[in-house]
């Protein structure tokens, strides 16, 4: 028994001594290697972001990349608030690794004469200048119709009908009598002229004289060639002078009627070439030239009628065909049309297909040609080419446009948010009226991530022009956020909702909202908003602000995770929606279908970008 306490005491002494020795050696080792450690935590390693956060849930912060535990979105690097932005609240400095992880890409701003395409729709029609009505020039009875249905093709001189007319019989006898007494006398000439004015062809008059007999039955012949598009008589009818008999249209030339939006008028000029396609001839492109731009805007559709002259010598094009047209334009400063190919050219003011290398007259109508410059074309540059920025660099908020510019900043990469004034939209970009300089680098991929970081840091971003701007309207519901999984699930039903709103169909819109709710459940911020939308008894209450904010949330998620969506959608914008604040939406295809105005302004809007 006495040995046990002694043993336990010795054991305790040994343990205490071991702990003291370990602490001493650890301290010594730390002191001996001070300033030589190469293993740093992610929050202190050089050239590494301090934290990673969620653009939708900024309260989530962790020391490394991953996904948000709330919404599943990929986390983005969060720059330190003391990153050296100085007094510039729009500046965000990022380390090189943060730039690489955020996949930031930049492009230099350049000057050039950009090309853009104006897309138009319409249909083919008869050329009104090539239609002719055949009327009765004398009372007659229709004994026989050779053209007895519409759509018949006739050529000049083809017989149309066999008629009997006492007046025509008398006129023939007058011609024969005068010719017998004096072939070249004035009475003979008057008799011939009378028959000519009755639409008898010269060879018919000569045949009467050659035969010497006044025919009781007389053949009416077509003075022009074309298609019989209207027939107003039947066999046995009696017609009086002036009664319409046939209408014939020459289809070797057609008119193409197109509709242009107000926003496209600055890019359209008389004489421009128009390329178009029809469903009847897939893969083929036809051409024509703009011959008329209406002086007023259609009050119902808010479009301007455009007419194009089209050659149709092979008769493959038919009146009534639906057409998709494109006008390709090269722009200079101040929306001028830059057309160096028209330098020194002269154009007919009535027939734009007539273009010559010098002054002269039109081969069709005889009018004097006019210089191309007088029709609104710029053939020689008078200043610098426009400043161009890619479309992916511009963040549109309705009335404002923001780009992020790469600026020099010590040993890090810094990006500055800058408001710009945009000019015309071009293929793949915009003309910049002010706000940028040639050679500056703008962010073309990852701008939304930079903007989200500024929002998390409570700095000015695309959603706010400056820190002293008025706060948002508190009467509008809070902006909603949708996680990746829900966004992918509800996108088809959202597109159904967009279609229903374009068709002003309240029941179909409510059915689409129920389909969205089937994916979201009934609890949470988004389901609460959907319940509010279902309670609405009119389309306006659905559109503003609920559909606006639902569209914004989906667009934000798709732009953040473009690789996660396998469906291609198009982001559209209507500057007149939401009380002229402007609003975006998503749809399939680039054919504008406006959900904010429905049938009243179905085609109002522009393509912003294709996602993903």
What percent strand?
Answer: 25-35%
Instruction: Output the number of helix runs.
Output: 11
Sheet with the most strands, sense and barrel status: 6 strands, antiparallel
Rg calculated over all Cα atoms: 39 Å
Distance between the termini: 83 Å
Helix coverage percent of residues? 25-40%
Category by helix and strand content: alpha+beta
- Averaged pLDDT, please? 81
Outline the structure in words:
By secondary structure, the protein is an alpha+beta fold. The protein has eleven helices and 35 strands. The strands form nine sheets. Strands 4, 5, 27, 28, 29 and 32 form a six-stranded antiparallel β-sheet that branches. A hairpin with a 7-residue loop joins strand 1 (51-53) and strand 2.
List the helices and strands and how they pair.
Elements: H1 3-32, E1 51-53, E2 61-62, E3 76-78, E4 91-94, H2 96-101, E5 105-108, E6 110-111, E7 115-126, E8 131-135, E9 140-145, E10 153-154, E11 159-164, H3 166-181, H4 186-197, H5 202-211, E12 217-221, E13 226-231, E14 238-239, E15 244-249, E16 253-261, E17 273-278, E18 286-293, E19 303-311, E20 322-330, E21 337-338, E22 346-347, E23 355-356, E24 370-371, E25 377-378, E26 387-390, E27 395-396, E28 401-409, E29 412-419, E30 421-426, E31 429-434, E32 441-445, H6 447-456, H7 484-502, H8 506-520, H9 525-535, H10 539-560, E33 569-574, H11 577-580, E34 583-587, E35 606-611
Parallel strand pairs: 21-25
Antiparallel strand pairs: 1-2, 1-3, 4-29, 5-32, 6-26, 7-16, 7-20, 8-15, 9-11, 9-14, 10-13, 11-12, 13-15, 16-19, 17-18, 17-20, 18-19, 22-23, 22-24, 26-31, 27-28, 28-29, 28-32, 30-31, 33-34, 33-35
